[in-house]
Structure formats: C-alpha cells, structure tokens
Amino acid sequence: MDWPFDQARNVAAITTVGVVERGLPVLVVQHFEDDHSWGFLCGTTDDADDGRVIGMGTAVDLDPSLASIADLRPGWMAHRTAVGADWNRQPADAADT
Questions:
Q1: Quick one: residue 71, left, alpha or beta (phi over 0 = left, psi -120 to 50 = alpha)?
Q2: pTM of the model
Q3: Diameter of the chain measured on Cα atoms
Q4: At CB < 8 A and 24+ separation, what contacts does 58-65 make?
Q5: Residue 13: in which H helix or E strand, if any?
Q6: How confident is the model at residue 96 (pLDDT cuts 50, 70, 90)?
C-alpha cells in the first residue's frame, strides 16, 4: 500500500489511552488545521490525562481502514459508529455547535 496521508508514517499523532492500552476502536479522526497533525480517537474521553502520542504508522497498523479517510482536509473531522461503518465528515468547528 502506498502511504496515503499527508504526514509520514513516523510523524507523531494524538490518540487516547483507550485506543493504545484498552484496544478501543478509533471512531473519531481529526485533521488539525493549524499544523496538519492528526488525532485518532476512541470518542470516549476528552480528558487531557487520557491522551497518548503514537506514530501515524502505528495508528494505521492498529486499524488499516483509517487509510480510507487519509484525504480528510485539514480543519475537518470524521466519525463513525463502529469499525467498518461509514465515516461521516464535517468541518471540525461544526462539531462545536
């Protein structure tokens, strides 16, 4: 597979303790507008103490289906109800309203 993301496999990404330590699925993805970094989140916590840093490649290794949202524009987010479900995309600022 060609690498589809705008950041290299070894670039840091944000995730949660649930994803890396509890095996929860990634259900929310955010492509940050300010620095084009990525967040691969479980959607169960927004507590900063639950945040973890992983490599982009590690995120895709955990769930290869994440490659399907590699074209998510900076400033946008995507969410799904379960692994294998369709991704729903929206501007990240729309999620706050």
A1: alpha
A2: 0.93
A3: 37
A4: 58/13, 59/13, 59/15, 59/26, 60/5, 60/9, 62/19, 62/20, 62/26, 63/25, 63/26, 64/1
A5: strand 12-16
A6: low
C-alpha 24: how far from its chain's center?
13
- For 45, other C-beta atoms within 10 Å of its C-beta total 14
Instruction: Say what the pLDDT of residue 94 is.
Output: 81
Radius of gyration of the chain (CA): 12
Q: What is the pLDDT of residues 48-87, one digit of tens each?
A: 999 999 999 999 999 999 999 999 999 999 999 999 999 9
Residue boundaries of the structural domains of the chain:
12-96
